[in-house]
Amino acid sequence: MNTIHYVGVDDAELQLFESQYAVPDGMCYNSYLVEGEQIAIMDSVDTRKTDEWLYNIQQALRDRKPSYLVIQHMEPDHSGSVNAFIHKYPQTTIICSAKAQVMLAQFGITPPAVQVVKENDILDLGGVTLRFIMAPMIHWPEVMMTYCVQEKVLFSADAFGKFGVYHADEDDWACEARRYYFNICGKYGAPVSIVLKKVSAFTIEAICPLHGPVLEGERLQEAIRLYTIWSSYEPETDGVLVAHASIHGHTAQAAEKIAEMLRTKGCKKVAITDLCRDDMAEAIEDAFRMSKMVVCASSYDNNVFPPMHMFLWKLQQKGYQSRTVAIVENGSWAPSAGREMRALLETMKNITIIEPIVTIRSSLSQDNYNQLETLTNLL
Ligand SMILES: Cc1cc2nc3c(=O)[nH]c(=O)nc-3n(C[C@H](O)[C@H](O)[C@H](O)COP(=O)(O)O)c2cc1C
Ligand SMILES: [Fe+2]
Ligand SMILES: [Fe+2]
Fold this sequence. Notes:
6-stranded mixed beta sheet, Rossmann fold, Metallo-beta-lactamase, Chain A, binds flavin mononucleotide, elongated, 12 helices, binds fe (ii) ion, alpha/beta
């Protein structure tokens, strides 16, 4: 890729991406310089890293000047440094979609020149051609992707992105890409499928996302395979996620027991998550990944313990569907968690609930052990 140069930045110190996702390996905001007779910069970066980004551009430009800044996505982790860029290179024309143009003003960005592009429009840099592909609702409405015709490279905006600095998890793209996908794009499976279909008409030798590494070769094929599964809401793995929210530990104990029973019965893959303590985004990811789930929660004020409520509400928001779910509740006087979990699950599409709900009264009884045996046989 001698016409495409990386000018993005790592943000290793970031703790919470989008103020909610733990990023133990930091984050990166990717940006690329595309060099024809004229030069285009692909996207800016978060305000946290403006100076470093401008420095990288200057180094890559040598004594040349950029003609275009392509904005594929207006979310501030990518548009945050546009104003600084315009200030430094005022002769640059911004290239973006019509919806992005509206957002420019909303974010207080008033560039001297904007060129709005639509589906299949072409930008000729002289020897290098960029073609624009609209990608609305991945995961904002103004998003577009860009195909570099000569290099057969797809700039995919946030699609195919992941958490972590650029070189994090060199050998395992899927783990943090999956957590990123289901939490950030999960709700938008249909638009993701549409754009995957559109870009399948192009020969793609590399994907350059806005977060995470460039995908080429086998890793590129694997990423497309996984995105096809994920965007269809099909389970990726035949297995069970046991998710629990327990005030004093008895429900957690039941969840551990369920996981143990499932393993003993030869269930291929069992994951367990403590919704009060573990990473909620990872629990969401695992729920989508697995074909089945068991939800276990304490009753709380004639409702369900809030961490479980939050989990199921988030799953509903993200479009969780077409899965088999078993319910285990605990209550000391009038158990209500099961009813509330069922009500939340019933708002989701095509969920099969395994009957009956198992009710624990404070701590596991011998009857409960037998009920859990029966329940796990049905999973
Ligand atoms: C603030 C609070 C509210 C509770 N509300 C209910 C309730 O509405 N109905 C009920 O049966 N138990 C209720 N409980 C009792 C717990 O649900 C019960 O002791 C718990 O399920 C035991 O399991 P655990 O050890 O996993 O928390 C409540 C407990 C607390 C601390
Ligand atoms: Fe985004
Ligand atoms: Fe992003």
